[in-house]
Task: structure prediction
Amino acid sequence: MENYKAYLDESLGFEERAKDLVSRMTLEEKVFQTLHAAPAIDRLDVKAYNWWNEALHGVARAGVATVFPQAIGLAASFDEDLLEEVADTISTEGRAKFNAQQKYGDHDIYKGLTFWSPNVNIFRDPRWGRGHETYGEDPYLSSRLGIRFVNGIQGNDDKYMKAAACAKHFAVHSGPEDVRHSFNAECSTQDLYETYLPAFKACVQEADVESVMGAYNRTNGEPCCGSKTLLQDILRDEWGFKGHVVSDCWAIKDFHEYHKVTSTPVESVSLAMNNGCDLNCGNIFGNLLLAVRDGLVEEKTIDRAVTRLMTTRMKLGLFDNPDKVPFNKIAYDQVDTKEHLKLNLKSAKKSIVLLKNEDKLLPLDKSKLKTVGVIGPNANNRKALVGNYEGTASEYITVLEGVKEYLGEDTRVYYSEGCHLFKNSVSGLGMENDRLAEARMVCDMSDVVIACFGLDPGLEGEEGDQGNEFASGDKPNLNLPGIQEEVLKELYKSGKPIILVLLSGSALSIPWADDHIPAIVQGWYPGAQGGRAIAEILFGDYSPEGKLPVTFYRTTEELPDFTDYNMANRTYRYMKNEALYPFGYGLSYTDFDLSNPSIEGEELGLGKNVLCTVNIKNIGSMPGAETIQVYVKVKRDGAPNWQLKGLKKVYLNPNEEKTVSIELKDTAFGLYDNEGRLIIHEGEYEVFVGTSQPDERSIKLTGKKPYSKIMRSNQTVIL
Result:
């Protein structure tokens, strides 16, 4: 058995095989396997592998792939099943592309099976440029959607992973972008556990996510990619995480260059490696050779890291007989298929939120329209379809194109850009507002006007990404940029019916539009099929079903300072002012009636689950979907307003009725204290079951009040 290599023995466990493989490597070979561009080790038949790949809303940056709605749009679907279906499709395309690239020896960046998605950071401040990469502001929603996205990416094979998902950026990370390399995010232990950690915990404990990426910033003084508190105490010891940790890209050099917690590259890599960062996005981990020489890192610590990394690669089937790995059979014809295009269109339609529909202006009846005006800088803007971290679609349908295609030859469509997205003129030599006359003329010629305004990823995104106009990628405020609102007011003066379609990855402050424009639609960055989806919604082929995963505030001024990570007066859970459009809100073309609500149980406590049941009937004339939402309010000082603790998407034809049951575990009634303990306090609780939050604004906008019941805990219990 002299030539027996345990790491190639497929009857053994992956970790055992990985340990054997690592035991055969030299120190130098091991160190270079901790870099994202890991070189080949020919003598051990280890191929080169680049760990860096992205799949936020489709396989990104590696050629043609299905470009789904941006993550914030998928979140607006409030549809857990959809998230898993989309992620499973992304994973299929990822495998198909990987298999093809391997065939031709392409081991480049963005060509692996380790996808650095999802981003489950909490969108705590609407100015944050990267917020559209997340699932919104609520820890529960982010948790449920994150779990299902991870499940879809990683698959459900008994032995192998389809691809590896990564929950990022751990933790307490949501801007500002321009100081992320030096910023110290200070938060209480209570906010840490109540708000910033739940989605990560869910991905680790419920979805068995393979990887976690650290954040650039410090949290309470410790750089996240070298934080003992985050990476050891919480992630591994408290939660039992078994996968690998990757740094954000070039984050470890920030330790000494910007955070100033270390003095040299060698000290920085030692801090990261010793506290459990296994993989370096970047090349600074090459300094581990010096760290071992100088006694700052033990070789067995590097062995542990490389074993974790090789275990992941083995789970992906990269060391096994190709015929034994089922995912190797996924051929390139599984990329950009008709079925994936249909799913993309369905996803876009599910993500769109109807914010206002005065006098039922929508849906439009195309048989009654001879002319339609489409005006605005986002009407024909491909960038506003896709967001960031995107792949290349084989077809893009803008709103203008979608409307033209839908209406066909019988209806004339007039178009004007209306204004630049953020500048005062479209033409470089033009006077200010140089498209206004054209826009007015389009209004004159049109029976109805579809006004497409908002943002695109050139205005909100990652620091330095795509040359953001606002440099850092964060927004200076929540207003429509440039002269957009000025132009919108001019369109309104035309007296024609105006439908405002907002394409953006975040909340905008539009109180004037809410007061004056009869119909408002939030389209997010709806993916490559977005224009088709919006047209089908506007003309009534599909009833809107999206809900807001973020609060739309009235003004920027009511927000706390951007750098303040205290949750007080942030998001629907803690805000004091009334929202313009609340979290969880969204209208439909059809109508739903709730009846026979029941919340079982009187007393709360350890192990006591609460069953919420309600009948829902579609009493309108269109098929449609509604989201049952369950909120819990702890009636004590300092507690959140209420928190989402259960949701269920229901699809109903006209006159169809279903019974929905949502079970709340005892943990749904717990609040974290400042020692990170989850406690059910003695006292009163209120449980709400409805189709929105129980706030006054939601009740006013929807005309519906959630059913509620007071419950009680007779003792304080630590869970």
Notes: The mean pLDDT is 97.
